[in-house]
């Protein structure tokens, strides 16, 4: 038989999704893949059911139902300080995942480089390969996940086509400050590069931290693609509704790619999403305070169990150092450790190496996600305390 595509040989299956399957088989606590195990708001569920019974069951407008694009445009004007025309600047996609790959497909030519902060959400690796971009990594240094300005400046050159900024950040919980975003913006302008901003955790913030969209900074609207989705904000990760906001010339390209990739995101869920976007500030405050409590609780449990970790400023993950426990268990790599952790405690995590290009950098880390109900978090805390060697 003729060989299959070479490109698909160069990356592996998603470890995040694989860990979910391993966890399901073991009947464990899934603190690996970032999705809530509690119900989404009743109101959004009812809106989806209403949309289905109202007959929204055929293909949507390929680049998004007008109601949803209008709702997105209103929301980003208010929350993100981004002006966008719903007719020309928005593409609704199957989740932020499709928005990212469609954006890169729309931007990248052979030989182009993209800058990615490391550790990074694992999709960005295969996304770069599939779009043909050469990634250049800029390290985020723990414990507070700062980058070096010199290293960032050195990563830009005439081949730089784009930089991916994920704020709040998965897996570190870093929230990029205004000064950092201004520094990145100045480099994008200097090198004529695009900013691809994945802001899916924009409402999950702690300790009074503020979310800033790089598209709102001077000179950035025309060179930024802002990606988001309803998945995390409204706890509906299975609905697959996301979007990319960009100036018309970029949007035109993204829409073409999106149309041939998937035609459209699920129609009834787009209508429900448009309704969810009219929720008042109390909804977002509730989400924030629930996750703030969960964060403090899980951090306490992890530290008691012997992990080293810092409070994330945003998103719902903790990237924890497991060196001490690994040593006590006689293990030297993160994948073996996360498998052992499921076996001993039933707790599923994501091995740290999934978030690094150079796998060894994550070999002492595992990521816990804490978007789970109290019952789950309490059982996890008990299991970790009782079953790990001290
Ligand atoms: N963003 C989530 C995570 O990092 C998962 C997203 C996905 O699996 N599509 O766990």
Order of helices and strands: HEHHEHEHEHEHEEEHHHEHHEEEH
Gap between N and C termini: 53 Å
CATH topology of the largest domain: Aspartate Aminotransferase, domain 2
**Rg over CA atoms:** 21 Å
Largest sheet: 7 strands, mixed
Q: Summarize the amount of helix as a percent range.
A: 40-55%
Shape: globular
Helix tally?
A: 13
| CATH architectural label of the largest domain | 3-Layer(aba) Sandwich
Sheet with the most strands: spatial strand order = 2-8-7-6-5-3-4
SS strand fraction: 5-15%
- The CATH homologous superfamily of the largest domain is termed Type I PLP-dependent aspartate aminotransferase-like (Major domain)
Structural class computed from helices and strand pairing: alpha/beta
Number of strands: 12
Mean pLDDT: 97
Question: Explain this structure to me?
Answer:
This protein is of the alpha/beta class and 390 residues long. The protein has 2 domains: 7-40 and 282-387, Alpha-Beta Complex (Aspartate Aminotransferase, domain 1), CATH 3.90.1150.10; 59-276, Type I PLP-dependent aspartate aminotransferase-like (Major domain) (Aspartate Aminotransferase, domain 2, 3-Layer(aba) Sandwich). Helices cover 42% and strands 14% of the residues. The chain is built from 13 helices and 12 strands. The protein has helices at 15-26, 42-53, 66-79, 95-107, 124-131, 149-155, 178-191, 248-262, 267-276, 281-305, 323-329, 334-345, 374-387, and strands spanning 29-30, 90-93, 113-118, 134-139, 160-166, 194-198, 224-229, 242-245, 317-321, 347-348, 350-351, 365-369. The strands form 3 sheets. Strands 2-8-7-6-5-3-4 form a 7-stranded mixed beta sheet, sandwiched between helices. A 3-stranded antiparallel beta sheet has the order 9-12-11. It has a two-stranded parallel sheet with strand order 1-10. α5 (124-131) links the parallel β3 (113-118) and β4. The protein binds glutamine. Residues 16-17, 33-34, 97, 121, 170 line the site of glutamine. Pfam families: Aminotran_1_2 (PF00155). Its cofactor is pyridoxal 5'-phosphate. It is an enzyme of class 2 (transferase). Keywords: Aminotransferase, Pyridoxal phosphate, Transferase. It comes from Sporomusa malonica.
């Amino acid at each position: 038989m003729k060989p299959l595509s070479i490109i698909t040989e160069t990356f592996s299956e998603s470890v995040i999704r694989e860990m979910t399957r391993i966890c399901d088989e073991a009947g464990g606590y899934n603190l690996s893949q970032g999705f809530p195990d509690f119900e989404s708001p009743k109101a959004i569920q009812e809106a989806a059911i209403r949309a289905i019974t109202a007959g929204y069951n055929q293909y949507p407008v390929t680049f998004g139902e007008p109601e949803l694009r209008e709702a997105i445009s209103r929301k980003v004007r208010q929350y993100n300080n981004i002006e966008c025309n719903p007719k020309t600047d928005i593409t609704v996609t199957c989740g932020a995942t499709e928005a990212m790959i469609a954006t890169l497909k729309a931007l990248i030519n052979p030989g182009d480089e993209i800058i990615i902060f490391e550790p990074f959400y694992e999709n960005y690796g295969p996304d770069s390969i599939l779009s043909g971009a050469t990634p250049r990594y800029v390290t985020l240094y723990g414990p507070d996940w700062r980058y070096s300005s010199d290293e960032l400046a050195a990563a830009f050159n005439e081949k730089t086509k784009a930089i991916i900024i994920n704020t709040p950040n998965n897996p570190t919980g870093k929230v990029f400050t205004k000064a950092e975003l201004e520094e990145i913006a100045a480099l994008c302008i200097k090198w004529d590069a695009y900013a691809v901003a994945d802001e899916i955790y924009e409402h999950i913030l702690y300790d009074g931290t503020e979310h800033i969209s790089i598209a709102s900074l001077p000179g950035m609207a025309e060179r930024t693609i802002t990606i988001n989705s309803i998945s995390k904000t409204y706890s509906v990760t299975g609905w697959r509704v996301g979007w990319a906001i960009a100036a018309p010339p970029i949007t035109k390209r993204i829409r073409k790619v999106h149309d041939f990739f998937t035609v459209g995101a699920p129609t009834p869920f787009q209508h429900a999403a448009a309704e969810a976007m009219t929720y008042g500030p109390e909804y977002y405050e509730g989400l924030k305070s629930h996750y703030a409590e969960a964060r403090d609780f899980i951090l306490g449990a992890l530290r008691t169990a012997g992990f080293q970790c810092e409070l994330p400023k945003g998103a719902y993950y903790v990237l924890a150092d497991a060196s001490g426990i690994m040593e006590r268990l006689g293990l030297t790599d993160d994948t073996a450790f996360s498998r052992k952790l499921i076996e001993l405690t039933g707790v599923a995590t994501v091995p740290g190496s999934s978030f690094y290009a150079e796998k060894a950098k994550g070999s002492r880390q595992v990521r816990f996600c804490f978007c789970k109900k109290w019952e789950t978090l309490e059982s996890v805390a008990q299991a970790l305390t009782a079953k790990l060697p001290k």
